[in-house]
Write a structure and sequence with these properties.
homodimer, alpha/beta, Helicase, Ruva Protein, domain 3, 11 helices, 14% strand
Chain lengths: 246, 246
């Protein structure tokens, strides 16, 4: 067997949805999982499944629905897992340690490098029963507005899967734009500023005896703009045309 | 005027949904915003609004729909903002710098401490037009599965708003469970281990002349379990009862 990679670790994390009422949420959860590279969906006693609404909300993630494992109980859905994490919105008495989603994500990924991990989500209205969270070794909460904690089920799945992907895979630097997006080198920006100053003086807009802060301000603005070669060429062309005209 | 706080900064961030096709997504986006403490929704030429589906998906966030600002164009929706951030799934030619959601969140919050900020989301199928992203100073992407980047609109709103809340407000330590959840002090765990060893010896299970690694293993297990006072009392009570019986 090959050594696990972060990508194979994602494949070892199952999402268990317990007693889901609305099939649309099952489909939306499948889509949320797949966008983040998770693929194993377990459904414990869903009210309606399969259901056209689930398929409609899954969009391109219907394969997760087709391969979903249907179970009678959370205990059955946990077979084979060594870490079970319950996602909950409320505090409970006599419960496992509570972690925030971000803190839990790295532990979940580390565990998934070794074995099977489950994320357990409860019913839309009633959440998880204590008998269900009791089967888990960790409770996870998502920090929310204290006045409105009501995350949609698929939205909670999305945030957890997103945090797990972030913990598993460094996305690297953001994608670069195009080659044309390269900022011009120092000397070309300098050339533009010198040209601008000459034009300002020759037009009478700037008095070289009393230059004030005009050119430093312009330099500061172009420092923020980080102009590209092409943009400097446009500005200098325009300046040259204006100088010729006057 | 009072100095801005991170909470008032959240109130200065508007979410603009441009040309949304499905009213359910507008409602789900409103709910996503409110769970993270954002409240200002702008709708540019939505296909159906107001609409019962939007209200159904908003759940307890209908106030955001009732107070939503309807606009004819993205430019109108951007009035008053000093930073506009376009959320996009694809690279573009001749565009603003691209950031990942997490990196963008802290810049968005810092800017919102000073002025108005907009997050711009495009149509479900076609995304944002170049004419729309051209009005923004930043592009933001959410890292996804390279084989399935298709985030639902409200799911993308949820992730951005979540990242922004995380950047704005330290959620502090996770909520503690109950007072009963306190791990017992060192000496009580020691008392249990001594009791366990005595019982193991007196029952003949452990040969004190050849103890091997039995007790270190038990100590290691209880170190992971971090038992509470109550749990130690239960275990010692049970040991005492077993000792009496034998």
């Amino acid at each position: 067997m090959n050594a696990p990679t972060p990508l194979t670790a994602l494949a070892r994390i199952r999402v268990i949805l317990s007693r889901t009422s609305h099939p649309g949420n099952i489909g939306a959860a499948a889509r949320a999982m797949k966008t983040m590279g998770l693929s194993r969906l377990y459904l414990v006693a869903p009210r309606h499944f399969p259901d056209p609404q689930a398929h409609a909300m899954a969009a391109g993630a219907v394969d997760l629905l087709d391969n979903a494992t249907l179970c009678d109980s959370v205990s059955a859905a946990l077979q084979g897992t060594s870490l079970a994490v319950a996602v909950t919105a409320r505090r409970r008495e006599l419960a496992s340690p509570i972690l925030w989603a971000r803190g839990a994500a790295s532990e979940i990924v580390a565990e998934a490098m070794q074995g099977e991990v489950a994320l357990l989500f409860g019913n839309e209205t009633s959440g998880l029963a204590n008998e269900e969270t009791d089967l888990c070794q960790r409770l996870v909460m998502i920090p929310t507005n204290a006045d409105f904690k009501s995350l949609n089920l698929a939205a909670a799945v999305q945030i957890l899967c997103y945090e797990i992907r972030q913990a598993a895979l460094d996305p690297g630097p953001p994608p670069s734009i195009t080659e044309a997006g390269q900022p011009a080198p120092h000397e070309e920006v300098d050339g533009l500023l010198n040209h601008l100053e000459r034009a300002a003086i020759s037009s009478g807009f700037l008095d070289p005896a009393e230059p004030k802060r005009l050119m430093p301000r312009m330099r500061r603005m172009f420092a923020r703009a980080r102009p590209e070669r092409e943009e400097i060429a446009i500005l200098r062309g325009m300046l040259a045309a204006l100088e010729k005209e006057s």
